[in-house]
Design brief:
By secondary structure, the protein is of the alpha/beta class. It has 29 helices and 21 strands. The longest helix is centred in the N-terminal third of the chain and has 43 residues, at about 5-45. The structure holds adenosine-5'-triphosphate. One of its GO terms (cellular component) is cytosol.
């Protein structure tokens, strides 16, 4: 057989197995549908009985495994590259064993595995076996499928000693083939080509804190997402019920990664940009806008904790020159509390209760203090005094102004008044920092990402705002959906048990934080409220941090770890950047951050980065030419990474001029982002506009330029404006 006959023969052979898997799944889908139907009928015929989905399923235990597979198949994303993607040929003492590996496990009628779930122990050798330690694997085969058709095969021979006459070896390796494919606007899963060091991090124990570090392009994000899928597989009860939260830097990034988990058959993980995390206690409020570097540094700092406490304690009512006072007349007796007495009552109550939960106690304390002033010989029934006080208009008006329910946004907005900021920030922020803070809350400002953590902090200091009680809602919507029925009942029970002392944070059993080097200390506090009982996966690279104080970043993670069990993994290979590009990027970052963890780039393209120059007036026309050329040169995306001060103008001016040369499909391949928005993303070709301005405009300086330079998978062009560029490394 010649090579192409051999390939055709092998493809046909693998296709036969894949066909058998799909046939079995069709059968299982039918039986799953019948099972759901029967379950629903039982549920509907006896609505008084509590019916759990598991109980319904138990009726069909004879093929529960395949039933589950069919259920999970329903959530598998259509964009993935095939349900079955791998095959292992193992040398067993008796005979050769063949194992097929896939996104989900499937068994035949005799309960024999047709496909093993990639997360199962039996699939481990697919990822871990090496020629040095073959783990009994003779040949590892990656199958490339388009829908249910096998279209390609890539083999690795792991045990060269073994007799492989019956095992032909095809292709040049799956990893390289996968890395050189064009990138689209969505991240793809790597389930067919996970590397051994990545596999260790994915399958690490769930308890405590798992830290995954590594330079740009080492697969930290994609590994973290596969870890979420692995945790659900290995401990589904705990993590599906308790929930897994994945936090990333911004909405563009969240859109970029959102398809990975569905392509692995998982849709129960909550993905949130850091500006959306506090939405659970803020009525869904979220933010995308970011502050300028100086303001962001102030708002992210732990010093805000003390400042916000001062803010909450600052009375809302203007005390006037004589200070606050409360005067009530009861049957001709004048009762009075002065400023100092009122302050004492306020701090006494707040020493053990939060503002929004303490109004009742504060009123009790006020009434007691006033009642003791009624003379003993007064002509009043002592038991009637409290009611006489609380009925008086003077008392009611005073209490409403002195102790109103406070909303976190209203409280934070008070910082827009420089006099308020000066009072609460005295001894905490210097004058310049106070001015930045006050200016950022001036009339008409929008909430920023950093504000979300401050609002969250305020909610936890204030306590939840009292909500109007309309009584529990006993009507369940969507009654046919059995699992929702249970969830609604659970929620109801929780509300009754926890009542008002509940902070209403959503909490999770596992929290996975990506780009953790950019999480500010205030944001860590916000995240920890969502994971007080959780285990954690923390992913990041300090050398890409845009936060000015790197020690603070390290301290925040150490605090989180505390005494919990923890483990660290370092990923050492850069799968994204061509060696030519990464060589330049490493030289740039090392100048300002010599400790940067630099991975080894595995690919080279033969194209050196192009370091070009232009002038402000020629910038747009030069960019048009460059982008035009790059869209021809690469099959996927072209990213234009520009400093924030230039981005809007480029977004406006460039597309109309590009449009005259390109069709719409090509225009969709051109994307405009700031370096901060580019975090975690990648493009086939990248133009970094005005690198010196990127350094100057970002709190992280050169580290943020490093992020921009490490985004391309194939071509890099830098474009200095009005000068040769101080950022360029010495030749
Ligand atoms: N084992 C693998 N097989 C195929 N592709 C991989 C593998 N590991 C990583 N990649 C690819 O390398 C690229 C970089 O991965 P990822 O974005 O997860 O890296 P990262 O470490 O988070 O990068 P950064 O820190 O720069 O954001 C992605 O295109 C990813 O699909």
């Amino acid at each position: 057989m010649n090579d192409s006959e051999l390939l055709a023969h092998e493809l046909a052979h693998e296709q036969a197995h894949v066909d058998a898997v799909y046939a079995r799944l069709d059968e299982a889908t039918r039986s799953a549908r019948d099972a759901a139907q029967t379950g629903r009928q039982i549920f509907q015929s006896d609505r008084q009985t509590w019916m759990r989905e598991e109980d319904g399923t138990a009726l069909f235990e004879r093929d529960a495994f395949t039933f589950q597979a069919a259920k999970r198949l329903a959530v598998l994303d259509a964009e993935h590259e095939g349900l079955v993607f791998g095959r292992l040929d193992l040398e067993e003492p008796e005979e050769r064993e063949v194992r097929y590996i896939g996104r989900i496990g499937v068994r035949d009628e005799d309960y024999e595995p047709l496909v093993i779930d990639w997360r199962a122990r039996a699939a481990e050798p697919f990822y871990r076996a090496t020629p040095q330690q073959p783990m009994d694997v003779v040949r590892r085969r990656v199958l490339r499928c388009r829908n249910d058709q096998v279209v390609g095969i890539e083999d690795d021979l792991l045990d060269a000693e073994s007799n492989t006459d019956d095992l032909p070896i095809i292709g040049e390796g799956a990893l390289m083939a996968s890395l050189s494919r064009s990138r689209g606007t969505r991240m793809k899963d790597i389930v067919a080509t996970i590397q051994a060091e990545q596999d260790l991090a994915i399958r690490a124990d769930h308890a405590g804190v798992t830290i995954i570090s590594g330079g740009p392009g080492t697969g930290k994000t994609v590994v973290a997402l596969h870890r979420a899928a692995y945790l659900l597989y290995s401990n589904r009860r705990r993590f599906e019920r308790g929930g897994i939260l994945v936090v990333g830097p911004g909405p563009v990034f969240m859109n970029y990664i959102e398809r990975v988990l569905p392509s692995l058959g998982e849709d129960s993980v909550v993905l949130r940009a850091i500006g959306q995390v506090a939405g659970d206690v803020l009525g869904g409020l979220s933010a995308e806008q970011v502050d300028d570097a100086g303001t962001a540094a102030v708002k992210g700092s732990l010093r805000m904790v003390g400042l916000l406490k001062n803010l909450v304690n600052l009375p809302l009512v203007d005390p006037g020159s004589d200070g606050l006072s409360l005067v009530v007349t009861v049957k001709g007796n004048v009762l009075k509390l002065n400023d100092a007495q009122l302050s004492r009552i306020r701090s006494g109550v707040l020493s053990h209760q939060r503002v929004n939960l303490a109004r009742e106690s504060a009123e009790k304390a006020l009434v007691n203090a006033l009642a003791t002033q009624v003379p003993e010989d007064a002509d009043v029934d002592p038991d009637a005094v409290p009611e006489l006080i609380t009925d008086s208009a003077a008392y009611r008006d005073f209490v409403d102004a002195w102790w109103p329910p406070l909303s976190a946004p209203d409280v934070l907005r008070r910082l827009g008044d420089p006099r308020v900021t000066a009072k609460v920030a005295d001894g905490i922020l210097d004058a310049d920092e106070q001015a930045l803070l006050a200016a950022s809350y001036a009339e008409g400002h929008d909430w920023t990402v950093a504000d979300m953590a401050l609002l969250d902090e305020l909610v936890s200091v204030l306590g939840p705002e009292p909500i109007e009680d309309h009584g529990p809602n006993l009507f369940i919507e969507g009654g046919e959906n059995v699992s929702e029925f249970v969830t609604t009942a659970d929620r109801l029970r929780r509300t009754i048990e926890n009542d008002l002392t509940d902070d209403r944070h959503e909490t999770y059993a596992h929290v996975l934080v990506d780009e953790s080097q950019d999480i500010t200390p205030m944001q860590w506090r916000m995240l920890r409220r969502r994971g007080s009982q959780a285990s954690w996966t923390i992913v990041g690279d300090i050398a890409q941090s845009s936060w000015p104080d790197l020690d603070e970043v390290g301290r925040a993670v150490r605090d989180l770890v505390g005494t919990a069990p923890h483990r660290e993994f370092r990923l050492s290979v850069n799968y994204r950047s061509p060696a030519e590009v990464f060589d330049l990027a490493s030289k740039v970052v090392q100048v300002s951050y010599p400790r940067a963890d630099l991975p080894r780039a595995v690919r080279s393209t033969g194209f050196d980065p192009e370091l070009l120059e232009t002038s402000s007036s020629a910038l747009v026309s030069d960019l048009v030419r460059i982008v035009d050329r790059l869209t021809d040169a690469v099959g996927g995306t072209v990213g234009i990474i520009a400093p924030p001060s230039r981005l809007d103008a480029l977004k406006r001016l460039l597309p109309p001029r590009l449009g005259t040369r390109m069709n719409t499909a090509n225009l969709d391949r051109v994307l405009f982002v700031t370096p901060l928005e580019a975090k975690g993303l990648e493009y086939d070709a990248v133009v970094v506009v005005a690198p010196d301005e990127i350094v100057a405009e970002s709190p992280g300086g050169v580290r943020v330029l490093y992020v921009a330079l490490t985004r391309p998978t194939q071509r890099l062009v830098t474009l200095d404006v009005d000068g040769p560029g101080a950022w360029r490394p010495a030749p």
